[in-house]
Amino acid sequence: MSMIKRIRAILENFAFFIFCMVVILFLMQLFCFTSFRIPSDSMEPALKDGDRILVNKMIKGARLFDVFAALDNEDVTIYRMPGWGSFKRNDILVFNFPYQMNRWDSVRMDVMQYYVKRCVALPGDTLEIRGGFYKVRGCDEQLGNYDAQQYLANLKHPEQYGIVVGTFPYDEQLGWT
6, 12, 142, 149: which is deepest, by most CB within 10 A? Predict the structure, then answer.
């Protein structure tokens, strides 16, 4: 076999190897794991703005949808693969925030905008926020960012701060946050 044929065979094998690796990495990112950049400082000190995290899609199952239609801001149908697990308290979750856009028949979400938050309660839990602290009935573990909760608990007049203080602003009619 001539030297040129040998070099050509090596290059073909290398190209095939690279192609297979790209396909495997694409499938792994589509169905198993993907990375996300933390978009804000809302998860500090655990995660800082700009940090990258690796998300395990196999827990609840990968979502499949037409990315090009989503980029064009069209309605997309989302299919979910079967998952192999469930979320636990204090897990960090990546999700799309649902919103209503001049419609009462459905809730939309921007599938290209992600939020990163901590799971403090699970389906069936009763979550209480008292004096700035999170508490799930029947659960003794510390939930969420304790320092941020302590900060809220120490505010003298939290109603002055509105939504900046936390998830629920003070409501004068109801008399609670």
Answer: 149
